Description:
By secondary structure, the chain is α+β, with helices and mostly antiparallel strands. Helix content is 29%, strand content 32%. It has an eight-stranded mixed β-sheet with strand order 1-2-3-4-5-6-8-7. It is globular.
Amino acid sequence: MVVFETDRLLLRTLKHEDLDSVMNFWGNEEVMKYCGNNGSREREQKAIEFYIKLQKEKGFSAYAVILKENSEVIGACGFNPTKEEHKIELIYHFAIKYWGKGFATEAANACINYACENLKINKISASIHPRNLVSKKVLEKLGFKFRCMNWSEVTKQKEPYFELHIV
Ligand SMILES: CC(C)(COP(=O)(O)OP(=O)(O)OC[C@H]1O[C@@H](n2cnc3c(N)ncnc32)[C@H](O)[C@@H]1OP(=O)(O)O)[C@@H](O)C(=O)NCCC(=O)NCCS
């Protein structure tokens, strides 16, 4: 089980028991409106299984983000694989009641530090829906730079594509 933390948050490998909490973000229509779409319990159960396996096989995954103050799983933040061996994709999704408190930036920073220390990567990528201005702000705060517009198979449109180069 991978575990790391920030001042306010604990991040750990997802577990099957996280499904109820996971439905508050991956299962929520408003949260996922710019990220493909929200899933059923069945789909998100499979997503949890995918990330548990990914962690075992590749050493990274999307992590459950737990608020230390109340021990709730408030979101997920971490990485998806890409077609390039040394590049991973950053993702972050949080339950609505926890938006606007700096948690995405705090969690993503911890994930990036974890990746830099533990993985052989040289780039982290991120794509956003053109109207997702909050996510763009988060990426800029993390030091990501806009590179180009890229076709997304998930949302079936061209999306702004960002990268963070690891030195
Ligand atoms: C995107 C998301 C993760 C951001 O989470 P968060 O915890 O609210 O983000 P943070 O508080 O760390 O940072 C948000 C920043 O955007 C700013 N912001 C908030 N609303 C904004 C708006 N409408 N327009 C522009 N900036 C905005 C905030 O002020 C903050 O910047 P600041 O620290 O300089 O004040 C969250 O809104 C979410 O889960 N959205 C749905 C999923 C999603 O879109 N994921 C992105 C990739 S698909």
